[in-house]
Amino acid sequence: MNQPLRQFLRISGSATIDGVTIFTDLDLTLKPRSWTCLLGASGVGKSTVLRLFAGLAEGVCFTGDLRVPDRVAMMAQQDLLMPWLSVLDNVLLGARLRGARPDTDLAHDRLVQVGLAGHADKRPSALSGGQRQRVALARTLMEDRAVVLLDEPFSALDAMTRAHMQDLTAKLLRGRTVLLVTHDPNEAARLGETIAIMTPTGLIDITAPTTPIPRDLHAADVLRTQATLFDHLRRPA
Ligand SMILES: Nc1ncnc2c1ncn2[C@@H]1O[C@H](COP(=O)(O)OP(=O)(O)OP(=O)(O)O)[C@@H](O)[C@H]1O
């Protein structure tokens, strides 16, 4: 990963959609070259934060300080696969949209890594939800970006595949600035170097383990952090 990180990411302020407040007084600065995990109740505005960082927040009225990098890779909650393209062509879509030379060998490698060797020529409609999510992950992992935004990227996967994809993603995105939105306390405890819970009135910072990521599923510091997150998340807003 040779790209220098010219800018850091910061969001500090409030957002509304159609005059309805989404969040107020949010203050989040991402540590460069590190994983930040963002949790919080459904509807609190986590995806909106990602969309603001990605410059894709059409319809969102934001007031405050928003510092975003020139280019990011983003994996949205919906897989956004093109139904008329093959799995391989979906993985190559970023390069095609940029008019760059598609790296077919790398795309095949990514498909193997996400466990979809042999599915390259299929249409997305022939895949399960978890398989489609892994195509979207493979597509995101094709992008050579210093900043990567991931919105619940493993949510449709079974437990074992999820752990495997977490390990793969941590390995391939080492050295990048990653913002991962997740509902899974174990995932945040395994992958977060900074962990925060978003609430309607701001962030709650959670002390993350200091061991390197991806952490072992059963490591004591992971289980401790997971328990702390559960305790915070089940408190009434
Ligand atoms: N296009 C839109 N028009 C109106 N309201 C919207 C729109 N998009 C999102 N919202 C509202 O903004 C709020 C925040 O949505 P957002 O998707 O950011 O939440 P979230 O924390 O990511 O939720 P989840 O965990 O369920 O994905 C929600 O209350 C949602 O209803």
Automatic annotation (TrEMBL):
Its EC number(s): 3.6.3.-
Boundaries of every ABC transporter domain copy: 6-225
Any one GO MF annotation of this record: ATP hydrolysis activity
Entry-linked InterPro entries: AAA+_ATPase (IPR003593), ABC_transporter-like_ATP-bd (IPR003439), ABC_transporter-like_CS (IPR017871), ABC_transporter_ATP-bind (IPR050166), P-loop_NTPase (IPR027417)
Pfam families the UniProt entry points to: ABC_tran
Gene3D superfamilies listed in its UniProt record: P-loop containing nucleotide triphosphate hydrolases
Keywords carried by this UniProt record: ATP-binding, Hydrolase, Nucleotide-binding, Transport
Root EC class: hydrolase
PANTHER family attached to this UniProt entry: ALIPHATIC SULFONATES IMPORT ATP-BINDING PROTEIN SSUB 2, TAURINE IMPORT ATP-BINDING PROTEIN-RELATED
Entry's family note: Belongs to the ABC transporter superfamily.
Protein name, as recorded: Aliphatic sulfonates import ATP-binding protein SsuB
